[in-house]
Amino acid sequence: MEKIYHCPLCDYHGELISFRGRSYAQCPRCLSLERHRLQFSVLQKLLNKEIMQRMSALHFAPEPGMRVFFDEHFGSYKTADLTMGDVDYQVDIQSLPFPDGQFDFVFASHVLEHIPDDRKALSEIHRILRPNGIAILPVPVICEHTIEYDEPDPLQDYHVRAPGLDYYDRYKNVFSSVEMISSFDVDENIQPFVYLNDEYIIQDGEWVHPYWVDGHKFIDIVPICYR
Predict the structure, then answer these.
(1) pLDDT for res 1
(2) Which terminus of the chain is less hemmed in, N or C, by CB atoms within 10 Å?
(3) pLDDT over 90 at 206, yes or no
């Protein structure tokens, strides 16, 4: 039976397609994934249009769907990345060229698992935020305890670490407070969960996803960091 979902980024209603072995993962219209729909829904609850018009935002590794939304709604919106060409600033997140307190909002989704000195990056993000500024910095949590790699892993999109359940403790050491929003905190109709096929799951064995719920369903987390 066809499962009908809603993509809040492009207002698509219908079936979602598979992506990298994950069922019900991708919107066929705007290509958003589970995490994008979750993050977008969190943002809609966190910031209204009037507030966003008064804010300056910096977006690292800008995803197309989020980029369009941010550009339309933030009063000042800039993009940044170390290697992407179509951004306002080609910068290293570990050493940012911006003055203290330049931005009200920083967004970097699935970025810090690629950064060798992520603690320095967190310190830099905190530094460029204005008082009461907000940073949203999700990473893929895939194990119990964070594992640091000796070198980037090409089989994991060149991640330099596997973030664990303890990873967001690093945020709590930098920001004044960190609020966690999960897949259960938004409308399930947007399909904010990750569904994995049998071949990606070790049953009764060495690996079990730390956010496993049931039926090969895993929750995702959006950390909202307040300066």
Answers:
(1) 56
(2) N
(3) no
**Contact (Cβ atoms closer than 8 angstroms) between residue 81 and residue 62:** yes
Average pLDDT, the chain: 92
pLDDT per residue as tens digits for the range 84-116 = 989 999 999 999 999 999 999 999 999 999 999
For the cut 90, the answer to whether the pLDDT of residue 201 exceeds it is no
Q: Are 113 and 93 spatial neighbours (Cβ–Cβ below 8 Å)? A: no
Neighbours of 224 (CB within 10 A): 19
Q: Taking each helix axis as running N to C, give the angle between helix 64-73 and helix 34-46, from 0 to 180 degrees, rounded to the nearest 10.
A: 20
Closest by CA position to 12, among listed 34, 33, 27: 27
Mean pLDDT of 51-74: 93
Which residues contact residue 219 at a Cβ distance below 8 angstroms, ignoring those fewer than 6 apart?
182, 183, 184, 193, 194, 211, 213
pLDDT at 156 over 80: yes
